[in-house]
Every structure is written in C-alpha cells, then in structure tokens.
Automatic annotation (TrEMBL):
This is MBL fold metallo-hydrolase. The keyword Hydrolase applies. It comes from the Bacteria. It comes from Salicibibacter cibarius. Keywords: Hydrolase. The keyword Hydrolase applies. Residues 24-217 form the Metallo-beta-lactamase domain. Transmembrane segments: none annotated. It holds the Pfam family Lactamase_B.
Length: 246
C-alpha cells in the first residue's frame, strides 16, 4: 500500500490496518532509489505475507538493503530472521535489540510476561539472528537518496530507537512505539517501560517540526504530525500521562 512517493505499508496487524498477520506491527518499505530499507519486521507468525507484499508492489526481495528495527518487542522483531534470510538485508538496531535477537532473549523482550498474560501463544519464540549494524543516538545510515538518523527514544522500553529523515524539506519519523496519532503512547506494566523516560523522549521531539509520523501501530499521519508530539507533551508537562493505545 503506497503511503507517499517513497514509502509503502507492507505489514500491519489488528492494531493497525490488518494487512498481514494479526500480531504484526506496522512494517514500512522505504524506497531510496538505489537502495531500499524495511522498517520493523512484524511478529514472524506469517512473514511470507510481508515478503509477498514487497514483490506485489514491484520490488525484488534482493532489492532490500537494510532492515531497521525500532525495538526488541516480538511484534517488531519476530520476522527479522526470515526477512534477513530471504532478502539479504543488513539489520540495523540498538545494542539491546542486538542482544535480544542474537539470543532470542525472552526476558529482555518481555515475551516471557507477554506469554503469561496470554498475549502470545505459549509455543511462540523469536527466531535468532545477527544484527549487522548497531546504532546509537544520532548515528546516521544512508539509504539511497535518504539519510536516516537514529534517535534514542526510551520509555516504551529500553533500547528503543526512532528513525528520522528529511525529504524535500518534509520531515519524517519512523517512530516505532514512541508516539501515535493524537499523541497517544504505549505504556505497559512491564519491567522496562518507564514513563519518565517516555516523557523525556517526547520532549526531545518538540523541535523536530515533523510533517509525517509513521508509527508502529494504528494510523499513519501524513501531514502536520508535530501536532501529535505537542498533544502528547501537553499531558507530560502537566505531570500526567497521555492515553495509551494498549
Ligand atoms: Zn513495543
């Protein structure tokens, strides 16, 4: 599904457009001309649906150069192994996501508690694979015509990154689970969800002047996306929490 002249939605679950498997986060393809990237990998329950969407919009699997991962939760990284094996994409992620993927770490990804809470099937596991490029705050990766900047945005969980880029003066953010339409957030009763850090991460976005927000769930925001940040911050600055999508 084409969203802008360079961005496609190729995966989305029931907290979004229900394009692929019910558990999937929003999965985007960024067409940078000479190079192509995917942002987030879905849950890995039916990764073949995401792979098929890449081909259906006219790309070859081998066209995908990078797979950027925003954070180490199962709905965002579960499909990484299959996507990497089928495309040869280099995986870009934070140090914590690297460790989670390498070891299939159920504790640091909170899959252990998510299974206990009945959110994932008991037999679910993350396929393990190597992250090729570990990035930290402000690191930049070129994807053809675009330069994506990693922004450290913890709060929803540790090791959370958002990826920012500019196209013809328009400012884009692949936000993962940082912030959503109308300034909502994603807070959970898990060990590394930290609402203070989340507020600080939202505050850090205040001067970005975003046009387009491509979040990990729910709707995309194709213009005036800074309003979502402002709405979210309007709660935090009163020491309150914005509504959560979860
Ligand atoms: Zn998450």
């Amino acid at each position: 599904m084409r969203l802008t002249n360079s961005i496609y939605l190729i995966g989305s679950g029931s907290k979004g457009m229900n394009l692929t498997n019910h558990y999937d986060c929003n999965v985007f393809l960024l067409d940078g001309g000479k190079e192509t990237a995917i942002i987030d990998a879905g849950a890995g329950m039916e990764p073949e649906k995401i792979l098929k969407n890449i081909e259906d919009i006219g790309f070859k699997l081998s066209d995908v150069n990078y797979l950027f991962l925003t954070h180490g939760h199962a709905d965002h990284i579960g499909g990484a192994k299959t996507i990497k094996e089928n495309t040869g994409a280099k995986i870009v992620a934070s140090d914590l996501t690297y460790k989670i993927l390498k070891h299939g770490d159920e504790k640091n990804s909170s899959i252990d508690v998510a299974k206990k809470a009945g959110m994932y099937p008991k037999n679910y596991s993350i396929g393990t694979c190597e992250v090729d490029i570990v990035v930290k705050d402000k690191d930049e990766i070129r994807v053809g015509n675009f330069v994506l900047q990693a922004l450290s945005t913890p709060g929803h969980c540790e090791g959370h990154l958002s990826f920012y880029f500019i196209q013809e003066q328009n400012k884009f953010l692949f936000g993962g689970d940082l912030v959503f339409y109308e300034g909502k957030v994603a807070t959970q009763f898990i060990n590394d969800c930290n609402v203070f850090k989340l507020g600080q991460s939202i505050k850090k976005m205040k001067d970005l002047n975003l046009d387009v927000l491509l979040p990990g769930h729910e709707t995309v925001v194709l213009k005036e996306a800074q309003e979502c940040i402002e709405k979210s911050w309007s709660y935090f600055e009163k020491l309150q929490l914005p509504p959560s999508i979860l």
